[in-house]
Amino acid sequence: MLRLSLLAILAVGLADSPAQGPASQPKIELSASGSSTGQGQGSATVSGTITCPAPWQLSIHVVTVRYQKAGTGKSLNALIPVKGDKFSATVDLKAGSYQVWAVIDVKDADGREKQISTDPQNFNIS
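Above: the chain sequence. Below: its structure as tokens.
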């Protein structure tokens, strides 16, 4: 009888304990737009936010924003300082269609590094 009571207590205790879900992951968000100044040139403006839930933190406080002109395998990399959890910059570019994405390194409480990035976004400079 004692064994049955102990089993019942254990079963109730396990049923009441909350399930541990996966820990929140860091993420980076990016907004990009292009504008033309005429004469085959223009500028691209990017801004974004980095979210690092505990125990994550930034490894460095510089985000790499990559601009790639359509049809080329080359990219222009802009290093943009992160202030708080935000970043923004404007870069002069030649006319064309571009993809842009942002990349930054974060680390967990044990010092393990992870690179996070945004999905590529498209914009045009006419």
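The radius of gyration is 23 Å.
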